[in-house]
């Protein structure tokens, strides 16, 4: 870490202007500094390892599902996954893809299939190091809650625990699961789809009148390439165009 700037814990979320305030419809936009050529890369030729590098380096930033589960024997498990996103809002649904580990299911996947339940906790800056520590390759039977020092608390509708330190938690019930199979017929991932049955959000993070979630208060981490993480400290707002207001420009 030597030579890196210290982390600014007090940095606030701000809004700026859009990147090109003078942009008009039907004007092309692109990289203007120099001419570039596209490189065509066939996944079958470069292989899954290099495809992985391209995916995690280019599809950024990615949200992180910090998934807590309970095994059949009662052992608590906690692990982060960045192959994750929301699916829809009616019903509220999320999806997580969990890689196989040495040809075997990870504990998180096994626990979800056994119990039909899990919790997705959003990772915030104030417990980034502890959350990252749960990715350790601990032996089976070792709880990541104990290793990281994070605190399990009871959920309301599922047996899986929540992470007390997380300001935004979603209790989920398994709806579908789908094995992802490669060209050799090998299962490489398990795709999990879960319906959210309960939200738990810190009262200073969500406005329960407007249901607006404050990024400044949530301070979520995002996943970048390699072992890099990102933070959201600046944004801009672009209103969606409405045809009734825009159609005269194309007459």
From TrEMBL:
Pfam families linked to this entry: Flavin_Reduct
Cofactor(s) in the UniProt record: FMN
Keyword Manganese tagged: no
UniProtKB keywords: Flavoprotein, FMN
GO MF, any single term: FMN binding
The organism's place on the tree of life at top rank: Eukaryota
This protein's record includes keyword Cell membrane: no
SMART domains named among the record's database cross-references: Flavin_Reduct (SM00903)
Transmembrane segments: none
Residue stretches making up the Flavin reductase like domain: 57-213
InterPro entries in the cross-refs: Flavin_Rdtase-like_dom, Split_barrel_FMN-bd
Family note: Belongs to the flavoredoxin family.
Name of the molecule in the record: Flavin reductase like domain-containing protein
């Amino acid at each position: 870490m030597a030579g890196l700037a210290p982390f600014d814990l007090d940095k606030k979320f701000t809004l700026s202007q859009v990147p090109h305030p003078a942009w008009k419809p039907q004007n092309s936009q692109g990289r203007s500094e120099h001419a570039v050529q596209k490189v065509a890369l066939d996944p079958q030729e470069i292989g899954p390892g290099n495809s992985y590098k391209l995916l995690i380096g280019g599809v950024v930033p990615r949200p992180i599902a910090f998934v807590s589960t309970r095994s059949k024997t009662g052992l608590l498990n906690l692990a982060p996954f960045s192959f994750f996103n929301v699916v829809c809002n009616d019903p509220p649904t999320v999806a997580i893809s969990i890689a196989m580990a040495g040809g075997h299911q990870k504990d998180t996947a096994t626990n979800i299939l056994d119990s039909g339940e899990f919790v997705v906790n959003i990772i915030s800056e104030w417990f980034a190091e502890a959350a990252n520590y749960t990715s350790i390759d601990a032996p089976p039977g070792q709880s990541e809650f104990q290793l990281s020092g994070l605190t399990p608390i009871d959920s309301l509708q599922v047996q899986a625990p929540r992470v007390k330190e997380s300001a935004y938690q979603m209790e989920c019930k398994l709806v579908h699961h789908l094995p992802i199979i490669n060209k050799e017929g090998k299962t490489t991932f398990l795709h999990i789809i879960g319906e959210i049955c309960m939200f738990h959000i810190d009262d200073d993070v969500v406005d329960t009148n407007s249901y607006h979630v404050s990024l400044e208060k949530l301070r979520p981490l995002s996943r970048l390439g390699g072992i890099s993480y990102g933070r959201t400290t600046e944004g801009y707002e672009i209103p969606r165009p409405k045809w009734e207001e825009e159609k005269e420009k194309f007459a």
